[in-house]
User: What shape does this take?
Amino acid sequence: MELARDAGLDLVEISPNAKPPVCKIMDFGKFKYEQQKKDSETRKKQKIIEVKEVKFRPNTDTNDYDVKMRNVFKFLENGDKVKVTLRFRGREMAHLNLGRKLLERVAVDVEEHGKVDMIPKMEGRQMVMMVNPLRK
Assistant: This one.
């Protein structure tokens, strides 16, 4: 403590559980500032992956399908996950096989841009499938 006081610095305990405890003589304010800079730098570098959603219906026509698939490809190119939702209404619930065929078609079309993460499964009145972008 005397050495730290003579140098005009702080005595900082680095590893309190070690035998004997490890201490270091340094400027604690400067240390905290540099640590904060490192933390903010690592936060800048990380990519935040968003989940984008594209909604279909069992009787979605080909032109509408193409427009929605363009959006899916755009989202995957940007590195976002895509949640493909197929919503059933009323009597459409009797034709779940049509919805499954549509989602299988989406899975085949998306193979070169992404990978199907979660196979289609029913959640209430909608069938959901997740697609991850391919690694670059």
